[in-house]
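Please review this one.

:::
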Amino acid sequence: MRTAICDQLRIEYPIFAFTHCRDVVVAVSKAGGFGVLGAVGFTPEQLEIELKWIDENIGDHPYGVDIVIPNKYEGMDQVDLDPEVLKKQLGALVPQEHLDFAKKILADHGVPVDHSDDDALQLLGWTEATATPQVEVALQHPKCTLIANALGTPPKDMIDHIHAEGRKVAALCGSPSQARKHADAGVDIIIAQGGEAGGHSGEIGSIVLWPQVVKEVAPVPVLAAGGIGSGQQIAAALALGTQGAWTGSQWVMVEESEHSEQQHAAYAKASSKDTVRSRSFTGKPARMLRNDWTEAW
């Protein structure tokens, strides 16, 4: 299984684990793979706490941090604006009707909601202004050797800054044209994510997308993502020219995961027919388990 990207990142196996759980990051990296902590939702202060814990428990193994900067978003021309001010401006774009709808659905299903605080139902603040402080925190940790962007090509000045600090840049894509933009911008690793992926995904199936992206950006290394949950699927990805697998949903199920027993049970019960691609969670197309929330949306 060893590929060229293993030597570049000093890992034994080309298996990348995207997760929001620091314990999973440590477990995967210590096992020879490459753990990647999803930073969205963390304040810079919270992210520092998480990365410090990872540093103290991961030994000499490397890991990565995943941020979110969409290519286009409201207020993107205000990158110098204070992140909290920008967050409030973006929050003002969410209509009260949506907040009322979300609260009612949750209340009807016994999900506790603090009606005095709408932040949990607001935009997450995915902007360059919110991501830049996260990047600066990550770059203070030498064992963090990769910064990935989950939505679009990172800004050129950010790519240059990360490179200047001796780290690599990765970015996810859902089409060959998006991959081309990443490569032209100087992204080091392209993650081709098929429509089967949990979370944000495009419409092209993985087995079609992976070789297209490999051909489009060669010799830039490509990781395969979308619907990978077994060694057989990793082998298939490697056979199609990728250098490794970027995986996510399967790590919800491991014992190191911080997810609840109810979430574990829902994943274990679900079949491949029980997912839907919906904008109901973040406003961008994401694959998730079909439930009363997605049906109500």
Notes: The mean pLDDT is 90. The first strand starts at residue 15 and ends at 19. The chain is about 40% helix and 15% strand. The radius of gyration is 19 Å.
